């Protein structure tokens, strides 16, 4: 009897890749996968493959219990409700409570590295969610995803255009991993049928300073990129000045501060433990996504 696996946030970037790897990499039958999201009509492509689609709204506790009915393994992908402090934790707690009521046997959750010792603004959400899962008594797999390689694609094209990357990380080091590698490892954990509770931290294989990252970007893009050291306040002003919301600015500043303090200085072999593979190095990722990195309008590199 095969287990039923439900993935929340199935229309999101991570959710889509997790389901892709469940089916394509780990040969899970589409009929054993439930893809859940606020807007199930976005999941037509998955439905056509035989994946079961359900509506799951984290602000609707009763609806969540219904969505989770008959599910063996539940993957809670942390929501994107970051604009209102405390909202995300409330949503996650509602999902855990619904899972308990629905009789879910195993909960997987996407967290972040060392949420108990972090300056990152949303770390308490993750710590509280982990604690709620542990308190539920349900077996769990907590997967703490490091900062994504992909996150650099947001600001890096702009940085390259001016040749300057304003950073408050100092000499702090970070080990990043691709979103797709995280999805691969999460799918591996979901498909493994493992019943024991465990916590994994997914990182890349190397620790890099922002100057080392800038050198990689420069090498791949064929353009100079200098890191300009700024303090937290200057960085926050710059991000706000670029038109990003205050909560995003605070989050990015807190991530730089966390790196500077050495709190992202974490490398594990958990990715390899789960997948048997090596994580994609940052340079290889940038080469793969060179078009997005240099944002020159051509479609090459994908």
Task: Set out the fold topology.
Elements: E1 5-7, H1 13-24, E2 33-37, H2 44-48, E3 52-55, H3 61-67, E4 73-76, H4 87-102, E5 106-111, H5 123-136, E6 139-145, H6 152-162, E7 164-167, H7 179-191, E8 198-202, H8 210-221, E9 226-229, H9 232-241, H10 246-260, H11 270-275, H12 282-288, H13 290-294
Parallel strand pairs: 1-2, 1-4, 2-3, 4-5, 5-6, 6-8, 7-9
Helix pairs in contact: 1-7, 3-4, 4-5, 8-12, 9-10
Summarize it.
The chain has 302 residues and is α/β, with parallel strands linked by helices.
What does this protein structure show overall?
- The chain is an alpha/beta fold and 302 residues long.
- Residues 297-302 have low confidence and may be disordered.
- The longest helix is centred in the first third of the chain and has 16 residues, at 87-102.
- α1 (13-24) crosses α7 (179-191), α3 (61-67) crosses α4 and α8 (210-221) runs parallel beside α12 (282-288).
- Strands 3-2-1-4-5-6-8 form a seven-stranded parallel sheet, with helices on both faces. The chain has a two-stranded parallel sheet with strand order 7-9.
- β2, α2 and β3 (52-55) form a beta-alpha-beta unit.
- It has helices at 13-24, 44-48, 61-67, 87-102, 123-136, 152-162, 179-191, 210-221, 232-241, 246-260, 270-275, 282-288, 290-294, and strands spanning 5-7, 33-37, 52-55, 73-76, 106-111, 139-145, 164-167, 198-202, 226-229.
- The protein has 13 helices and nine strands.
- Its EC number is 1.6.5.2.
- Residues 2-245 form the NmrA-like domain.
- This is NAD(P)H dehydrogenase (Quinone).
- It is an enzyme of class 1 (oxidoreductase).
- Keywords: Oxidoreductase.
């Amino acid at each position: 009897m095969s287990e039923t696996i439900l993935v929340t946030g199935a229309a999101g970037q991570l959710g889509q890749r997790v389901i892709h790897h469940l089916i394509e990499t780990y040969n899970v039958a589409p009929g054993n996968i439930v893809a859940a999201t606020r807007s199930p009509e976005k999941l037509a492509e998955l439905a056509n493959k035989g994946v079961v689609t359900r509506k799951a709204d984290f602000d609707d506790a009763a609806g969540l219990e219904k969505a989770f009915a008959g599910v063996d393994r539940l993957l809670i992908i942390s929501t994107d409700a970051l604009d209102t402090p405390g909202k995300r934790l409330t949503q996650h707690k509602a999902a855990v409570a619904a899972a308990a009521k629905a009789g879910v046997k195993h909960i997987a959750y996407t967290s972040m590295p060392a949420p108990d010792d972090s300056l990152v603004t949303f770390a308490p959400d993750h710590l509280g969610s982990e604690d709620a899962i542990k308190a539920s008594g349900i077996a769990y797999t907590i997967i703490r995803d490091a900062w994504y390689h992909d996150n650099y694609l947001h600001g890096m094209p702009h940085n390259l255009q001016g040749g300057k990357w304003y950073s408050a990380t100092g000499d702090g080091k970070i080990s990043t991993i691709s979103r797709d590698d995280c999805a691969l490892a999460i799918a591996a954990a979901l498909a493994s049928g493992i019943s024991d509770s465990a916590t994994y931290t997914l990182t890349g294989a190397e620790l890099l300073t922002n100057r080392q990252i800038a050198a990689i970007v420069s090498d791949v893009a064929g353009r100079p990129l200098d890191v300009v050291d700024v303090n937290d306040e200057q960085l926050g002003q710059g991000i706000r000045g670029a038109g990003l919301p205050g909560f995003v600015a605070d989050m990015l500043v807190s991530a730089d501060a966390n790196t500077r303090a050495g709190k992202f200085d974490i490398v594990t072999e958990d990715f390899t433990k789960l997948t048997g593979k090596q994580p994609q190095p940052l340079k290889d990722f940038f080469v793969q996504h060179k078009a997005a990195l240099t944002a020159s309008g051509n479609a090459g590199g994908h």
